[in-house]
């Protein structure tokens, strides 16, 4: 068993009791809720005549079903309006803070938590969403839960959990030009498998991780779950602390920063910590990674050939055949040149300021290909406002992108932003499952934000490193 | 809450095989059916896009076969339930009629969600599962008994060993799989833990 890791320490700090099942009852420092997975939990509380135990430790927003075009009320979609109204009622009754669209603070739950300083190192963070692992970027222990567990958290501020093993994933070296955090995590999932992390928490470490900004670390931790690991984290460091200082919470409570810093330092993994497993990846060898299939583990370097199913481990072959048929790709070819109909720049993986800035650099001076419908969906209202202050919206709009309101949007197709028929998308999101983006015949190619921008302007999957400099006319 | 939580020592019934690795929760319940504020009625949408074409006409799928309509034991392959944390997935299966799932392996959040509903997720190796799936196809009307306590599955007059995660086995067989009341009873200890954390304001 692991010893002296951040996971061990944060687990210990938050242990309330050992349950008769052998599970640990774990205190949850922060509980985030949204409109899709929480209403049933509030319903269960009501059935059992229970109150929300610690309303001040839960924070709500609306992201999954919220329209990204016209957000005026009532929403045009009756079902979306009903879910929104239900959430409003629930948070009002329980006295829970709500970053709603009129606040200017609304956005994807995994974008707004960090930007408001709700997410802090050494916390336990839960949310009825598998991408809660995102918050691990701050050195928090953060994981997705189901609705019955949301009920538990609302009623008791605790969850029943079994302790997991810890795998350290050390990414050494310096990432090459055009290679981003997204490529690192797609490579990790490709190597370790979509189920390789089951039973583990991932600790991301090494020079390439330490050199990432917080947004890059969030992109990596975000996709831990795609590799089967319910949680992933990076030890907090000066990069983390500098980011935290700028957030609302520490702007409003500057004394808290000095007060909490010793705790943050204390929960870092010890230099001699013991891990259940260690994996090393040479970051300097990576290139932009794109997916060729229908699971996030089916990735390939942009210049590498798509693998033949028979060259994969036996248990992966059937899925690979089915995926290649669905995507219409051939083994031996590269993904470069794969035609796309939609470019989606958004999601809790890649819709923060640096993501939009990097994509805008690629887009500037270019035009979206005629055959492509391209959209930018900022991760939060604040990201949107900050991007507009820098003029990024103009860059995208001039190129022919739609510039939309904040939400989950086409990552999972619960609002009107969906693929149609057998459209193919270049997407900065996290899942390429069949049907994920709203059409069961739709095709999703996952990639980093600059690669999405490159695909948008060329109309096909493109190695962004090959795009020539745009020269001013 | 006054309702006693039932102990679940076993589950019995006819089977339905769902083949394939990495079957994600978007397949089990497509997101568009989650625009609801209760779980009621999700059963008919389980595996919807696998079961129906764009005109809502049935496709070839075990869950559309008349002889599997009464099935309560689902037999699946590896990494079943990966992806989204949506409890809508096991809720949909449960409401379709599933009481237990036997598979090669399960995604963690999915298995946890099943446990919270009292649905055992028991595992066995690839060959054992494939043999069972084939047998179910041949014998759709025959019973399978899942013994959670003793970690066995009995069918066709033979008994095979399966694995049930320790915590899951205890939770099911001791009737503590619904943890709300149990954890609520520790309210003082919860407050003590909260008080001990530097980031929680007193």
According to CATH, what is the topology of the largest domain in chain A?
Answer: Aconitase, domain 3
State the end-to-end distance of chain A. Answer: 62 Å
* Derived structural class of chain A: alpha/beta
> Considering the protein shown, what is the CATH homologous superfamily of chain B?
Aconitase, domain 4
Cα end-to-end separation of chain B: 29 Å
Uncertain runs of chain A: none
Number of helices of chain B: 8
**What radius of gyration of chain A results from the CA coordinates?**
21 Å
Pathway (chain B): Amino-acid biosynthesis; L-leucine biosynthesis; L-leucine from 3-methyl-2-oxobutanoate: step 2/4
GO cellular component, one term (chain B): 3-isopropylmalate dehydratase complex
Pfam family, one (chain B): Aconitase_C
Region (Disordered) (chain B): 1-21
Structure explained in plain terms:
Chain A: Catalyzes the isomerization between 2-isopropylmalate and 3-isopropylmalate, via the formation of 2-isopropylmaleate. Chain A: Its cofactor is [4Fe-4S] cluster. Chain A: Residues 8-459 form the Aconitase/3-isopropylmalate dehydratase large subunit alpha/beta/alpha domain. The complex is a heterodimer of chains A (473) and B (202). By secondary structure, chain A is of the alpha/beta class. Chain A has 16 helices and 19 strands. In chain A, the strands form 5 sheets. Chain A has a 5-stranded parallel beta sheet, with helices on both faces. A 5-stranded parallel beta sheet of chain A has the order 17-16-15-18-19. A 4-stranded parallel beta sheet of chain A has the order 11-10-9-12. Chain A is globular, with a radius of gyration of 21 Å. Chain B has a 7-stranded mixed beta sheet. Chain B is globular and about 60 Å long. Chain B contains 8 helices and 7 strands; from the N terminus they run βααβαβαβαβββααα. At the A-B interface, strand 1, helix 2, helix 3, helix 5 and helix 11 of A face helix 3, helix 4, helix 6, helix 7 and helix 8 of B.
């Amino acid at each position: 068993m692991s010893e002296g890791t951040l996971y061990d320490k944060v687990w210990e700090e938050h242990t309330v009791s050992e349950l008769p099942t052998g599970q640990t009852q774990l205190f949850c420092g922060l509980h985030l809720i949204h409109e899709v997975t929480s209403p049933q939990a509030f319903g269960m509380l009501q059935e059992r005549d229970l109150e929300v135990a610690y309303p001040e430790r839960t924070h709500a927003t609306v992201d999954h079903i919220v329209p990204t075009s016209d957000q005026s009320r009532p929403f045009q979609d009756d079902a979306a309006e009903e879910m929104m109204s239900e959430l409003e009622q629930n948070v009002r009754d329980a006295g829970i803070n709500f970053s709603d669209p009129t606040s200017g603070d609304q956005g994807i739950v995994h974008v707004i938590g960090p930007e408001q300083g709700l997410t802090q190192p050494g916390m336990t963070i839960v949310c009825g969403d598998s991408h809660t692992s995102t918050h691990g970027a701050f050195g928090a222990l953060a994981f997705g839960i189901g609705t019955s567990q949301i009920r538990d958290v609302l009623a008791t501020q605790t969850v029943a959990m079994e302790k997991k093993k810890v795998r350290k994933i050390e990414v050494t070296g310096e990432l090459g030009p055009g290679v981003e955090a997204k490529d690192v995590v797609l490579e990790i999932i490709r190597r370790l498998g979509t189920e390789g992390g089951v039973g583990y928490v991932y600790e991301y470490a090494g020079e390439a991780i330490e050199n990432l900004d917080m947004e890059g670390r969030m992109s990596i931790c975000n996709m831990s779950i795609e590799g089967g690991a319910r949680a992933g984290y990076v030890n907090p460091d000066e990069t983390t602390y500098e980011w935290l200082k700028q957030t609302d919470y520490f702007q409003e409570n500057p004394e808290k920063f000095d007060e909490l810093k010793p705790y943050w330092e204390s929960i870092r993994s010890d230099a001699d910590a013991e891990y259940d497993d260690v994996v090393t990846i040479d970051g300097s060898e990576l290139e932009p990674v794109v997916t060729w299939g229908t699971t996030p583990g089916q990735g390939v370097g942009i210049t590498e050939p798509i693998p033949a199913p028979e060259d994969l481990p036996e248990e992966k072959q059937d899925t690979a055949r089915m995926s290649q048929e669905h995507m219409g790709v051939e083994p031996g070819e590269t993904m470069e040149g794969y035609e796309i109909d939609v470019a989606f720049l958004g999601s809790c993986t890649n819709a923060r300021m640096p993501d939009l800035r990097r994509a805008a650099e690629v887009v500037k001076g270019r035009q979206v290909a005629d055959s492509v419908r391209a959209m930018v969906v900022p991760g939060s209202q604040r990201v949107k406002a900050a991007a507009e202050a820098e003029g990024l919206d103009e860059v995208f709009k001039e190129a022919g992108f739609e510039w939309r309101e904040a939400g989950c949007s086409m990552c999972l197709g619960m609002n009107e932003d969906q693929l149609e028929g057998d459209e193919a998308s270049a997407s900065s999101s996290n899942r390429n499952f069949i049907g994920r983006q709203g059409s069961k015949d739709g095709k999703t190619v996952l990639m980093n934000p600059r690669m999405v921008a490159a695909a948008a302007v060329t109309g096909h999957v493109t190695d962004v490193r090959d795009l020539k400099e745009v020269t001013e006319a | 809450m006054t309702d006693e939580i039932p102990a679940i020592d076993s589950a019995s019934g006819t089977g339905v095989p769902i083949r394939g690795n990495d079957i994600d929760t978007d397949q089990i319940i497509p997101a568009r059916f989650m625009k609801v504020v209760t779980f009621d009625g999700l059963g008919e949408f389980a595996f919807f896009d696998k079961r129906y074409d764009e005109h809502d006409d049935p496709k070839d799928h075990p869950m559309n076969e008349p002889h599997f309509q009464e099935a309560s034991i689902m037999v699946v392959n590896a990494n079943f339930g990966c992806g989204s944390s949506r409890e809508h997935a096991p809720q949909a299966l449960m409401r379709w009629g599933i009481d237990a799932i036997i598979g090669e392996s399960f995604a963690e959040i999915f298995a946890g969600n099943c446990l919270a509903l009292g649905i055992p997720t028991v595992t066995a190796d690839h060959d054992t599962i494939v043999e069972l799936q084939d047998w179910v196809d041949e014998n759709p009307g025959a019973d399978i008994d899942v013994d959670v306590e003793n970690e066995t599955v009995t069918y066709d007059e033979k008994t095979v060993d399966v694995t049930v995660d320790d915590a899951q086995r205890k939770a099911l067989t001791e009737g503590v799989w619904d943890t709300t009341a149990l954890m609520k009873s520790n309210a003082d200890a919860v407050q003590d833990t909260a008080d001990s954390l530097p980031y929680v304001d007193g």
